[in-house]
Specification:
Shape of chain A: globular
Number of strands of chain A: 21
Order of helices and strands of chain B: HEHEHEHHEHEHEHEHEHEHEH
CATH class of the largest domain in chain A: Alpha Beta
Distance between the termini of chain A: 52 Å
CATH topology of the largest domain in chain B: Oxidized Rhodanese, domain 1
Number of helices of chain B: 12
Largest sheet of chain B: 5 strands, parallel
Distance between the termini of chain B: 49 Å
Strand content of chain B: 5-15%
Radius of gyration of chain A: 24 Å
Number of strands of chain B: 10
Oligomer: heterodimer
Number of helices of chain A: 15
CATH topology of the largest domain in chain A: Sulfite Reductase Hemoprotein, domain 2
Helix content of chain A: 25-40%
Radius of gyration of chain B: 19 Å
Largest sheet of chain A: 6 strands, mixed
Structural class of chain A: alpha+beta
Helix content of chain B: 25-40%
CATH superfamily of the largest domain in chain B: Rhodanese-like domain
Shape of chain B: globular
CATH architecture of the largest domain in chain A: Alpha-Beta Complex
CATH architecture of the largest domain in chain B: 3-Layer(aba) Sandwich
Structural class of chain B: alpha/beta
Number of domains of chain B: 2
Chain lengths: ~600, ~270
């Protein structure tokens, strides 16, 4: 491999963020409060709420460590911010960072007394962990393809940014009954608008010959111990009503949401309890009040100045001599063609969202050198997207990624499973879902299943407990962890579900059966084998499963029960003497026991 | 004020360059021989860490120091290209046998070079000098010493390894400040006020005696030793044989149980 360098490095600070999310005084305040707490001057509950409001989550089986969740609004992250995260992960965490399914970046196993130092470092680059946990408005998401997606009507990014800016530290939402989530998307296919409190798809409507911007808004969806699909508020919500609708919805939730029963207090339960029609009426009425009573100066500051696109300066073209191995496989399965001619978005596969400090630095460099927008986006599936790469530069990007171990293929395919943090750090986890996701990915790549077009639009998502941080319920093949028992011996096990999806036909997965952890990979491969033997012309795994779970199968396998029968052998439990490994979870060589502490998703 | 109090633990490039011009300093480059031969700071002598570690008995180190032209009064500056950890270990060794005027260059050789400061490829040697031996046991911790003070509330054991290694196993009661915490982007150690703040946040007090250790030979913890020294902690010891010896002697070890933290690493 001998690619000539053709890029003139741009100035290090060429591109700076437009919005500073940080408040520098918050780090010192946090440090002081930790001291008071350690001296017993602040009560435990009060401190926990304060800590969560500032983005520091508890850690598995210990009070000494925290996970710091850093918000990346709309996923937009600048190269110098990635470099800062790299440095902070080495100094105060484990030398790796984690990209979450909600576009946050998480630093795990941080000593509580060091959290303030991370906050200080974040403030230096305009980032914050404020309201990343706790009963607050969490990171405002936006499709990482927004602005480049061929299906979108307009770029939702400035609206997501403006919403995030309006709500961050807003007194109105500092003490909600429970957490509250906004997801903006580009189009039906690339978002999760029906699986969140407020989901928004950009829409253009022509009124009296005039094009008007607005949104399709979905309320009351969400994944969890009990999941609900969101409802569409109205046909079209014009952009000037975006803020009023958001305020009205938050107010209704704040006023009527359940503050006692933490297990049933996300807004979706309120919608379920009141019934959609009544909830909808309340929101619409409240919106009329908000519209009539808000001062005219209360509005979203949507920055719609066109994005600066500056292609990297080229000295000489690529000589075309040595295209690294695997480039075409990577290009096919890791890049999107943008709606803008000649530009591509490259998605970076991370194993279950994990990235080392030096890889973060390398990504910063790639972003600086090859993205004409000069920033990157964190994605929805524990990934990072580098956009605005000209087609001829893709090979350079690939070879750079290859050098640092970030060129794993299959990021847009089934070979890129999602796994929540599981027993690596979470108090609630029952299994090591995180490692299982990595094991599946390695197996799929080894078998080159990333290159199988029939599997391309399918997903695998894994949670380490029934709560849905791993989003298993919207996966084509989903798993959540638990403990199995035979006599006095326990073994890790996963509940398997199939047919979940988060697109225009959003549906929750249908339970199949419990599969022991060490049989999950063979069971998935068996399912694929079944599909290959049974499928009709044109079927993908996703469409084949969809037909089965909706009762429209037109082949041999008619129902989930038929699948169960074939997978039954995988549920056999061997004796502990004949198969010790069966009784140990991934990442552990000792005998499995379930151990959980207190969750903090509800503060 | 005694002479030792006035000696700085760190010297910056400007200071070192003026000392070089005055010919008033002995510079020690602790990188590998081949790196040294390519280029080094002018007049620096080479003492590869591996060479020192092959036998770091005071008698041998004394002889090495004398052969580098160091006597009791020589001002010594040590540098490396490994974020200051190897240089720290050599500096500590010289201090241990009683040499008081020794400091670390506050940057790595790479940053020296990329700043455009002068380098040289000439191998240099100096006439041997005589140096006395005044062992300073108060900066050394041995396994016996650790056993003796383990329940002393005024003693803090500080583990300078990376977080995951610490979680996996550490000396009972030790707290963890990974060596990466100590450096800034440009310098081998953060500015004093920053280090002070970080150590204070972690509850370390200047009244305490602090014993630093790391994985095997006292390099990362050597840097920890000097981080504390520059921050005016008067009582610091280096457990020079570190965790490797501790573990080898089957001493008690603490582990963070019931969590698979290793699987969060993308290494």
């Amino acid at each position: 491999m001998n690619l000539s360098s053709t890029i003139v490095r741009r100035h290090k600070d060429a591109k700076m963020p437009k919005i500073n999310w940080a408040r520098s005084e918050e780090s010192e305040n946090f440090a002081k409060t930790v001291k008071l707490f350690r001296q017993g001057k602040i009560d435990q509950d009060l401190f926990r709420r304060f800590r969560l409001q500032h983005g520091a989550y508890g850690t598995r089986m210990t009070d000494d460590y925290a996970m710091v969740r850093i918000k990346i609004p709309a996923g937009e992250i600048y190269p110098h911010q990635m470099e800062k995260l790299a440095t902070l992960s080495e100094a105060f965490s484990i030398g790796s960072a984690h990209v979450s399914t909600r576009q946050n970046v998480q630093l795990h196993w941080v000593i509580l007394e060091d959290v303030s130092e991370i906050m200080r470092g974040l403030a230096e680059v305009g980032l914050t962990s404020r309201e990343a946990c706790g009963n607050s408005v969490r990171n405002v998401m936006c499709s990482p393809l927004a602005g480049t997606c061929g299906e979108e009507q307009f770029d939702a990014t400035p609206y997501a940014m403006a919403t995030a800016k309006f709500l961050l530290r807003n007194p109105m939402n500092q003490s909600l009954p429970r957490k509250f989530k906004f997801n903006f998307t580009c189009c039906e296919n690339h978002g999760m608008v029906r699986m969140t409190d407020v989901g928004l798809i950009p829409q253009i409507k022509t009124v009296d010959g005039q094009e008007q911007r607005g949104f399709k808004i979905f309320l009351g969806g969400g994944l969890g111990n009990k999941s609900f699909v969101g409802h569409q508020l109205e046909d079209f919500t014009p952009e000037e009503d975006l803020l009023y609708t958001s305020i009205a919805t938050i107010r209704i939730f704040d006023r009527l949401g359940d503050r006692k029963n933490m297990a049933r207090n996300r807004m979706r339960y309120l919608v379920d309890q009141l019934g959609w029609e009544q909830f909808r009426n309340l929101v619409l009425k409240e919106r009329a009040i908000v519209r009539a009573t808000q001062s005219v100066i209360v509005k979203l500051s949507v920055d719609t100045t066109p994005q600066k696109i500056e292609p990297p300066i080229r000295v000489s073209g690529f000589d075309g001599k040595s295209v690294p191995d695997g480039f075409s496989r990577w290009k096919k399965n890791n890049t999107y063609k943008q709606k803008q001619d000649n530009y591509y978005s490259a998605t970076i596969t991370l194993e279950a969202g994990d990235i080392t400090a030096s890889q973060l630095r390398a990504l910063a460099e790639v972003t600086r050198d090859y993205s004409a927008e000069g920033t990157a986006r964190t994605g929805f599936v524990q990934d990072v997207v580098i956009r605005w790469v000209s087609e001829s530069d893709l090979v350079h990007v690939y070879s750079k990624l290859l050098e640092v171990g970030l060129a794993n293929p299959g990021s847009l395919t089934m070979a890129h499973p999602v796994g929540c943090s599981g027993t690596t750090s979470c108090n609630l986890a029952l299994t090591n879902s995180h490692r299982l996701a990595k094991e599946i990915q390695r197996k799929f790549l080894e078998l080159k299943l990333d290159d199988d077009d029939d599997l391309r639009d399918s997903t695998i998502k894994i949670s380490g407990c029934p709560n849905s941080c791993g989003q298993h319920e919207i996966a084509t093949v989903g798993f959540f962890g638990g403990g199995g028992r035979i006599g006095k011996d326990m073994y890790p096990v996963y509940q398997m579900s199939i047919g979940g999806r988060s697109d225009g036909q959003t549906a929750l997965g249908v339970n199949v059966m419990r599969i022991p952890a060490k049989r999950v990979i063979p069971a998935v491969l068996k399912l694929i084998e079944m599909f290959k033997a049974d499928k009709r012309q044109g079927d993908s795994l996703k469409s084949w499963i969809h037909k089965i779970v909706t009762g429209h199968s037109d082949s041999q396998i008619k129902s989930v029960d038929d699948i169960k029968k074939i997978l039954l052998p995988f549920t056999q439990v061997p004796s502990i003497d004949s198969d010790k490994d069966f009784y140990a979870d991934y990442g552990s060589d000792s005998h499995y026991h379930t151990r959980t502490g207190k969750g903090e998703c509800a503060a | 004020m005694s002479r030792e109090k006035m000696i700085k633990t760190l010297v910056d490039a400007d200071t070192l360059r003026s000392e070089l011009r005055d010919n008033s300093v002995r510079v020690i480059d602790v990188r590998r021989k081949e790196d040294y031969q390519r280029d080094h700071i002018p007049t620096a002598v080479n003492l590869p860490l591996a060479d020192l570690l092959s036998d770091d008995s005071p008698e041998r180190v004394l002889k090495m120091a004398q052969n580098m032209g160091i006597d009791d009064e020589t001002s010594v500056v040590v540098y490396d290209d490994t974020f200051g950890a190897l240089a720290s270990r050599v500096a500590w060794t010289l201090q241990y046998l009683g040499h008081s005027d020794v400091s670390l260059l506050d940057m790595t050789y790479s940053s020296w070079k990329s700043t455009g400061l002068e380098t040289d490829s000439k191998d240099v040697s100096f006439g041997a000098k005589t140096h006395s031996m005044k062992i300073r046991p108060e900066i050394l911790a041995t396994v016996d010493y650790l056993e003796k003070v383990k329940s002393d509330k005024n003693v803090v054991i500080l583990d300078n390894r990376e977080r995951l290694n610490y979680l996996e196993q550490h000396i009972p009661g030790a707290i963890n400040i990974p060596y990466r915490t100590l450096a800034s982007d440009e310098k081998i150690l953060r500015p004093k006020d920053e280090l002070k703040r970080i150590l204070k946040n972690r509850g370390l007090s200047e009244d305490a005696e602090i014993i630093t250790y790391c994985g095997s030979v006292g390099t990362l913890s050597g840097l920890g030793f000097y981080a504390l020294k520059t921050t005016d902690f008067p009582n610091v010891r280096l457990y020079v044989r570190s965790f490797k010896e501790w573990k080898g002697l089957n001493k008690p070890i603490v582990k963070q149980e019931n969590a698979n933290y290793w699987d969060l690493s993308a290494e």
